[in-house]
Amino acid sequence: GRLLGQEVRRLAARSGPVEGAVGVISAGRGAGTVDIEVGEVTVSMRSIPLFRDRVRLGAVLLIRDVTDLRRGERALLTKDNTIREIHHRVKNNLQTVAALLRMQGRRLSDPVATAAIEESVRRVSAIALVHETLSQADADAVEFDEVADRLVAMVGDLGEDVTVVRDGRIGVLPGSIASSLALVVAELLQNAHEHGLGEKGGTITLATLRRGRRLRVSVVDDGAGLPPGFDPDAHARLGLQIVQTLVRDDLKGSLSWEPGLSGRGTTA
């Protein structure tokens, strides 16, 4: 024996100010959908006014209990925010590790040890880049072109005579794949700079071609080229061993070495 619109407004007022749309929809005066929260219960109400000859005769009201649905959405939102915060903290921790390694490197007098520390700093920084991107994303996915641009910039800063360019797009990748690929790309770029170009300088190109689930990544330099009798399995240093393991086990791919463009340099 009560008017639905008045009863809904009275119940909704328990949770705070009542939207104007609540009264309009619950009374059937206008079309639309509104969520009404009363305590821990959430109800979705949809109004479909009925007309004849432009005269409103009444309305159909569809009322659904969406408490569990909204609770699940809030839980997902909380989970997403928590995951982003974890990625943010991991990134901060990795940057702290990189800073500590830099401090340690400055105290060393052995050039070989210093170079090893610098390589470790670059590896940690490459992984931190992925976590930084994940901390700003809405899902466990990475716009890898942003990561690639920053990896290119990191290598480009190593020498004034080195130019690093990108060709092609990669797009969005799952976070687990992005971490491995970032480390692979960073190692190959560094390898091209250190062993391909050396002190003479030159150009390094990061070329990518993506077709569906398959991705081809090429790091090309115009430097000295591969040494005679080069065998990546026999002559692999730590960095190359890391690359081979990541490509084979994490990325389910293959790694090959070829002469560079026009017979100059190397293509990985």
Summarize the structure.
It is built from seven helices and ten strands. It has 268 residues and is of the alpha+beta class. The strands form three sheets. The chain has a five-stranded mixed sheet with strand order 5-7-8-10-9, with helices on one face. It has a three-stranded antiparallel sheet with strand order 1-2-3, with helices on both faces. Strands 4-6 form a two-stranded antiparallel ribbon.
Give the helices and strands, then pairings:
Elements: H1 4-12, H2 20-26, E1 32-38, E2 41-52, E3 55-65, H3 67-106, H4 111-135, E4 141-143, H5 144-156, E5 162-167, E6 172-174, H6 175-197, E7 202-211, E8 214-221, H7 238-250, E9 258-259, E10 266-267
Parallel strand pairs: 5-7
Antiparallel strand pairs: 1-2, 2-3, 4-6, 7-8, 8-10, 9-10
Report on this model:
The protein is an alpha+beta fold. Helices cover 49% and strands 24% of the residues. The strands form 3 sheets. The chain has a 5-stranded mixed beta sheet with strand order 5-7-8-10-9, covered by helices on one side. Strands 1-2-3 form a 3-stranded antiparallel beta sheet, with helices on both faces. The protein has a two-stranded antiparallel ribbon with strand order 4-6. Helix 1 (4-12) packs antiparallel against helix 2 and helix 4 packs antiparallel against helix 6 (175-197). The chain is elongated and about 95 Å long. 24% of the residues are buried.
Number of helices: 7
Average pLDDT across residues?
A: 83
Which spans have pLDDT < 50 for at least 5 consecutive residues?
none
Beta-strand percent range: 15-25%
Q: Please give the share of residues in helix.
A: 40-55%
Rounded Rg: 29 Å
The ordered string of helix (H) and strand (E) elements is HHEEEHHEHEEHEEHEE
The total count of strands amounts to 10
